[in-house]
Amino acid sequence: MRVTRDSLIRIAKETTQERVFNDPEIIAAYLTGSLLSAEPMLGGTADIDLVFVYKNLPAKTREFVKLTPDFHLDISRRAKDEFKSPRELRGDPWLGFEMYAPMLLYEREKFFDFLQASLRAGFEFEQPPLMLQRCRTMLSHGRGIWTDLTELDKPAGPKEVRKYMKSLFHAINTVAEISGSPIHERRLLLEFPARAEAAKKPEMVAAAYGLIGANNTNVEKVKLWVADWKEGYKLACDKEDVDPRIHATRLNYYEKAIKALLEGDTPLSALWPLLHTWTLSAEVLSGDHFQFWQNACSELGLLGDSFAERVEGLDHFIDEIEATLDEIATENGLDAFAGV
Fold it and tell me: Which of 230, 246, 227 is nearest to 238 (CA)?
């Protein structure tokens, strides 16, 4: 079956029509994510990121629906109350961008038009004051997670590596938000060079790769890890307490993207989706499959004595980003702490 961006958007619209007909609690629906771009496919796969807004938040806030092995619906549910005042929304590094330019699919109440008009009013959203506010909010999240890691009193394991990667994810996306929306997990290191260049900090690319351990491995080694990653992922899908992002429906979504990145111009950009999902899986794995993850992380310098060095390096990376934001504030005649 030939799948195109247009056919996936059509599925999004049909799914929305069906859901709102059967659920009067839904007051709005919109499409976000990669389908808003001209080239949503990575490794021949993509998901359809649908957001349904409810009068009251239902118990299940996220759902994956398989369409084919390579395509699925990723449905998020939000409560109307989550949508803050326009003033607050403009400073939100995630929801602000999500609401700035989505594809509206359904609206029962007119809150969407009001919010979007307020976000875009006066072209302030992309200007330095609000950009810095979003960046500082994003970086503050990363710094807070980093602080938790400095108080570690036991050897690092999957939980600690996950937190480390989350902190680094926020730091990288702080740089990305200087020139646009945040980057999602599959494309994080793939798209980061262009964002670092736009921020006039191209040297941050090498730093980010170093912090994930890319300097300690090579493409052929990473390719060998894919089989162990896949088996661990499949086993983790059957565990009740696994992170909801590790879902059988998303196996090809990750695997084919990882393999495509490994064959692309920046092959080690595959490290991020591989290691991120492997670490989430490792939290519920044991035996050989846990050991496979442990061996890979040890080689990358993310376990043992090297973990403390990585955490220290992350500290310096965040410091450099903080200094960059201060420079931007000064260049624009703003207080150095604008957006704090």
Answer: 246
